[in-house]
Amino acid sequence: MSVNATIARKKPSSIWLFLSLVVAATSIYGMYHVFMHGQEASYGISREVPWGILIIGYSFLVGISAGTAIIGSLAHVFNISAFHVMSKKVALISLATLIGAFFIIFWELAGPYQLQSLRLLKYYTNFEITSPIWWMVTLYMIELPLLALEVYFLVSKKERSAFFASLIGLFLSVIAYSTLAFVFASNATRPLWHSTAFSLFFIISAVTAGAAVILIMIFLSGKSQQYIKNVKALNIVLFLGLCLMFFVDIWNVFINTYGGKSELAATMKLFIGNGVLAHNFIYHELIIGILIPAILLIIGRFKTPLLSALAGACMVVGLFFSRFDAIVGGQLLTRGSTKMDFTLHSYHVSNSELSIFIGGLGVALLVFFLGGVFLNLEEEAHQ
Question: d(Cα 291, Cα 64) in Å, to the nearest integer?
Answer without folding.
Answer: 20
